Amino acid sequence: MGIEIILKIAAVGILTSVVNQVLKYCGKEEISTLTTLAGLIVVLVMVVNLISQLFNTVKSLFSL
Amino acid sequence: MDIIKVIAVGIITAICVVILKQVKPEMVIVTIIAGTIVILFLIMEAVGNIFGEYKYLLDKTGLNSGIFTSVLKVIGVGYLVEFAGDICNDAGVGSISQKILLAGKVLIIIMCLPVIKNLINIILEFIQ
């Protein structure tokens, strides 16, 4: 639990935009939107796991 | 909880957010959520210690622990509601953040009702 999760998300974001640039260059516009979607979904899954971990910790700590 | 780590995580998240604003604006809000959660996890352990100490002090005073658990619940709800409200503010939807805060206030009032009832009963006993 540290900065690696944040750096991972930033890396996925930057990678997705690079892939989009390359795809735009090759003329495959429609695939670039799919890559953006895929990148976003990967990051969302990571964050959803993080949020569920947070809620479980808070539930146990504050006896909610 | 070492404050250096909290500051480092905060600054790195801010930098990632600034970079992502240029490169990939959709990822900004997700990075903010991740950064906030990491900082909350760093704080969580210290909060646990604080509550442990309070419980120890409370046992010494002999009050019933029901009040302390409701205090804990109120703090927990406040903790989460503020977390969600701030994220919605960062995402630009201020109205949703206000609604979340409203819901949190309502829930806290509901949680405090039993304690208020106890207080009133105690006062009435004194009067009669």
Molecular structure report:
The complex is a heterodimer of chains A (64) and B (128). With 64 residues, chain A is an all-alpha fold. Chain A is built from two helices and no strands. In chain A, 19% of the residues are buried. The mean pLDDT of chain A is 91. Chain B has 128 residues and is mainly α. The longest helix of chain B has 35 residues. Chain B has a domain of 66 residues. Chain B contains four helices and no strands. The interface between A and B is medium-sized, with 32 and 34 residues.
How is the topology of this model organized?
The complex is a heterodimer of chains A (64) and B (128).
Chain A: H1 4-26, H2 29-62
Helix pairs in contact in A: 1-2
Chain B: H1 3-23, H2 27-61, H3 66-91, H4 94-127
Helix pairs in contact in B: 1-2, 2-3, 3-4
Termini separation of chain A comes to: 23 Å
What is the helix tally of chain A? 2
Q: Quick one: biggest sheet of chain B?
A: none
Unreliable residue stretches of chain B: none
Output mean pLDDT of chain B.
90
